[in-house]
Design brief:
The complex is a heterodimer of chains A (121) and B (108). With 121 residues, chain A is an all-beta fold. Chain A has strands spanning 3-7, 11-12, 18-25, 34-39, 45-51, 58-60, 68-73, 78-83, 92-101, 104-111, 115-119. In chain B, the strands form two sheets. In chain B, strands 2, 4, 5, 6, 9, 10 and 11 form a seven-stranded mixed sheet that branches. In chain B, strand 4 (33-38) and strand 5 form a beta hairpin. The chains are: A mainly beta (121), B mainly beta (108).
């Protein structure tokens, strides 16, 4: 059974940094691209960043480009999101998501329960 | 960026009836469209991908159709468990992957 579990969410001040992790199990992690998707309170879904299976390719939403960095440690089946220069509008639940297939990107068939990031002074 | 627009924002349908949800893309996305269901306090769940393929474990009451810029999710014989928010998502032209703003399906 595929399991994704995020951690690292917290209350942080504007301008601060936070590192989110996602522990994955139940599948061959290196074979799948992974992404982070966020959801502000009471709002819709926003794709944040994606990374290829071996980590050689990364992609970002314009809203986070230059501030966030996605990476992965395949030996530990862990996905990471480093968030710097946080802004109030980064407040959201952050979901770790897995692609449906090793061959097709961005069909998100498994989601973690999410971790809450609150940016406030 | 491909803008996804869902309609209506809220749809009220009775138990046992059929719900029809729409999603429009600002430019053609071929059949690279997915639908997700989200219940309060839960993560989204993949229902449909490639516009019309049901994900594992999704009942046949959920039917996706369309291609290009116009897509429809039809849910027949509505059950109480189906009342939720539904999002469409395109993955044809990215980054960024983009989602619609959601349709809330309520019981009438």
């Amino acid at each position: 059974e595929v399991q994704l579990m995020e951690s690292g969410g917290a209350l942080v001040q504007p301008g601060g940094s936070l590192r989110l992790s996602c522990a994955a199990s139940g599948f061959t992690f290196v074979n799948y691209a992974m992404s982070w998707v966020r959801q502000a309170p009471g709002k819709g879904l926003e794709w944040v960043a994606g990374i290829s299976g071996r980590g050689g390719s990364t992609y970002y939403a314009d809203s986070v480009k230059g501030r966030f960095s996605i990476s992965r440690v395949n030996s530990k089946s862990t996905l990471i999101l480093q968030m710097d220069s946080l802004r109030v509008d980064d407040t959201a639940i952050y979901y770790c998501v897995k692609d449906l297939s090793p061959y097709n990107w961005n069909q998100f068939d498994n989601w973690g329960p999410g971790t809450l990031v609150s940016v406030s002074s | 960026e491909v803008v996804m627009t869902q309609s209506p924002a809220t749809l009220s349908v009775s138990l046992g009836e059929t719900a029809t949800l729409s999603c429009r893309a600002s430019q053609g996305v071929s059949s690279k469209l997915a639908w997700y269901q989200q219940k309060p306090g839960q993560a989204p769940r993949l229902l449909i991908y490639d516009a019309s393929t049901r994900a594992t474990g999704i009942p046949a009451r959920f039917h996706g159709s369309g291609s290009g810029t116009e897509f429809t999710l039809t849910i027949t014989t509505l059950q109480s468990d189906d009342f939720a928010v539904y999002y469409c998502q395109q993955y044809n032209d990215w980054p960024p992957v983009t989602f619609g703003q959601g349709t809330r399906l309520d019981t009438k």
